Amino acid sequence: MFLREHVTGGFRFATGAIFFDGLSTTSGGSITTELRVNDRIRVPEVRLVGPGGEQVGIVRIEDALRLAAEADLDLVEVAPTARPPVCRLMDYGKFKYETAQKARESRRNQTNTIIKEMKLRPKIDQHDYDTKKGHVVRFLKAGDKVKITIMFRGREQHRPELGYRLLQRLAADVEDLGFIESNARQDGRNMTMVLGPLKKKSEAQAEVKAEKVKSMGVKAAEKEAEEAEVKAHREAAHAVATPKKPRRRSENLDPDMEA
């Protein structure tokens, strides 16, 4: 709520009142974005649309409410800014449920674009280059963009071609996973280039999930085979076990005791 006070001829009054549902209020309160339904529609006449999308025409609000009651539906104001407002006959509860389901599905399918950054030096050695390239490959496989930054120091700033060749080399090494979305450009002491993934984030996530499930299946099969092999080895060892020798009669025993 925004109020502005004016003083005119000794009188003070406020402007900027908020109008909500046809009522003026200066005491604040929450403003809802829900559509007005049935008795909340406070206009003399509306342009009515039937439940199947057919145009009924301009009718009085009383007649529109009566038609809604006869059809066991709700009268919903779908275009309040039109003159006259456009209302439609529908099942408002079902409409809200379907709208919420669509919004939930949209949020589920929405993907956030993430830009990873990898920094290199123009005179990077082969081992460090391979490590950095491995990270770039992992990011592109996950469906993320990668910003490659070449950092120049001292006299290296006078050799920008070193950074350019390094960026082109990296782009060629990962061309099966990504493409150059933003060409190399000098930015002060740095040179940057952006690589974009060939696959969308959702596709990359689906592939990663499928690979994870496949890997879990392979590990489970290997564990089962290993347990079966151990079991078979134990059974074989038990089958060929050396039989116990029969107990021999001690010669020191008294013959009468043996009887």
Task: Please give the structural blueprint.
Blueprint: E1 4-8, E2 11-15, E3 18-20, E4 23-25, E5 45-49, E6 55-60, H1 61-70, E7 74-79, E8 86-90, H2 92-109, E9 115-120, H3 126-141, E10 145-151, H4 160-173, E11 178-187, E12 190-197, H5 201-239, H6 255-258
Parallel strand pairs: 5-8, 9-10
Antiparallel strand pairs: 1-2, 3-4, 5-6, 7-8, 10-12, 11-12
Describe it:
- The relative contact order is 0.07.
- This protein is flat.
- The protein has helices at about 60-70, 90-110, 125-140, 160-175, 200-240, 255-259, and strands at about 5-10, 10-15, 20, 25, 45-50, 55-60, 75-80, 85-90, 115-120, 145-150, 180-185, 190-195.
- The protein is built from six helices and twelve strands.
- A four-stranded mixed β-sheet has the order 6-5-8-7. It has a four-stranded mixed β-sheet with strand order 9-10-12-11, covered by helices on one side.
- It is of the alpha+beta class.
- Strand 9 (about 115-120), helix 3 and strand 10 form a beta-alpha-beta unit.
- Helices cover about 40% and strands about 25% of the residues.
- Among the domains are: about 1-35, no CATH class; about 45-100, Roll (Ubiquitin-like (UB roll)); about 115-200, Translation initiation factor 3 (IF-3), C-terminal domain (Translation Initiation Factor IF3, 2-Layer Sandwich).
- The termini are far apart.
